[in-house]
Amino acid sequence: MSDKLLRKVLDDFKAVPESEIRRLITETLDENSELRGVFDSLPEGHILVSGDHKILLASKSVAMLLPSDRRGRIREGRSIDEAIIDRDAKAFLMAVFSGKEKPDPRDFAFQHGDETRIVRVSFRTIPVDDSSLTDIVIRDITEEIRKETKLRRSESLASMTTMAAGIAHEIKNPLAAMKIHLQLLRKAFRNKGSLNEEGAERYLSVLDDEIDHLNSIAVDFLFAIRPMDIELILGSLNDVIDDLVVFLLPEAEEKGIEVRTDLEKFLPRVELDPRYMRQSLLNIVENAFSAMPGGGTLSISTKLTGDYVTLTIRDTGTGIDPEHLEKIFEPYFTTKASGTGLGLTVVYKVIKEHKGDIFVSSEPGKGTLFTIKLPVPQSQRKALEDKEDGNACTVDR
User: Fold this and answer.
1) How many Å apart are CA 99 and CA 218, to the nearest integer?
2) How far is Cα 130 from Cα 219, in angstroms, rounded to an integer?
3) What is the Cα–Cα distance from 284 to 248, expressed in whole angstroms?
4) Could you report the per-residue pLDDT of 316-372, keeping only the tens digit for each?
5) Domain boundary among 202, 225, 248
6) What does the radius of gyration of the chain's CA atoms come to, in whole angstroms?
7) Of 186, 213, 337, 364, which shows the fewest CB atoms inside 10 Å?
8) Same domain, 126 and 163
9) Regarding beta strands 55-58 and 106-112, do their DSSP bridges make them parallel or antiparallel, or are they unpaired?
10) Domain enclosing residue 21, as ranges
11) Which residues of 333-361 are buried (b: 16+ CB within 10 A; e: fewer)?
12) Contact 369, 361 (CB under 8 A)
């Protein structure tokens, strides 16, 4: 039934026959009953709250999702503060309504018999005339969490399998070389009866080299898997790039590679650890140099794109085959004859520790492009807004 018809009846109530009023009321009650049935059948719980924190409407599933007593405390007409009996959930909701907390989704764990259930509480604003209502949405995400956990375990197991295979492959060659030179050393002893230091040096030097190789594999492996002691501070990404370019220029000139930079001035500072950021960028550049054995061009640029500082590193090298492109960040994946295959794994880990993202695109024979996006902190966004308003702010250069 339309609201217009009901309002028309109210405007001229006395002119409407009693039988017609009864019919209209009955139809309205039936429609409300049907709508309430649909509302209560929703899998997630809903609590519709007014501006004074009173419950206007609550679906039946709410009582099963949030802890409640047998008196059915979560019902219409009550204050949300009185209706919620779980201390943590109540504190969170009241903090949101008072403005002390942002209305971001929050997960809570509740004990249901022998089982722990996890629910996610989120918020929607519903405009009504000149005011608004708040729809508190409660959703059981226990199965989602279990599936995500199972998927992570599967991915972790697959990653461990890949890493184990990679380690076995990496240590196989040094161990084989050590075994061969030990056999040669024994053979030399048998043939000559004795060896001086000079006679044994050719064998011992190989053993030393292979031991160092094995040690480097272990160091790279530990660096790739152990938690990083990253200390994020507000800093200039352009400064990190400038220092890196100065370091790289001699090698670039020797290899016939031209390094070009296009760094945006007045770039906002980002949260970074200069040590790790420099190392990750160095790993990318060294791969680019390897891809340009006959020389080429390396282009590095920075710019502000929305709420992110975007860094691009482009080379004109051999490129990456499409079937390899999705695997380059995986541990021990490499197409080079030498190398552990951990360089880009470390890069990916460092960028993620910086709350950023990294993307790669490539075309065989034409080159590769790495794109890194780092979030601009809220304080620097405010500085940019002040700059636009004509106030002073602190940015790069």
Assistant:
1) 51
2) 64
3) 12
4) 998 888 877 777 776 655 655 455 556 788 888 889 889 999 999 988 888 999 999
5) 225
6) 33
7) 337
8) no
9) unpaired
10) 3-144
11) bbeeeeebbbbbbbbbbbbebbebebebe
12) yes
- 0.70 surpassed by pTM: no
Beta-strand pair 367-375/257-263: unpaired
298/369 Cα distance (integer angstroms): 10
Joined together, the tokens standing for residue 203 give 């064998």
| Angle, CA 272 vertex, CA 270 and CA 273 arms, to 5° | 160
Domains of the chain: total: 3
| Residue 173 and residue 26 in one domain | no
User: Residue 395: inside a domain, yes or no?
Assistant: no
Beta strands in the chain (DSSP E): 45-49, 55-58, 106-112, 115-128, 131-140, 233-235, 257-263, 270-272, 296-305, 308-315, 357-363, 367-375
The label of the residue with tokens 């860094």 reads 311
Instruction: Tell which of 128, 144, 160 closes a domain.
Output: 144
Task: Give 123-156 pLDDT, tens digit per residue.
Answer: 888 887 777 888 888 888 888 888 887 776 676 5
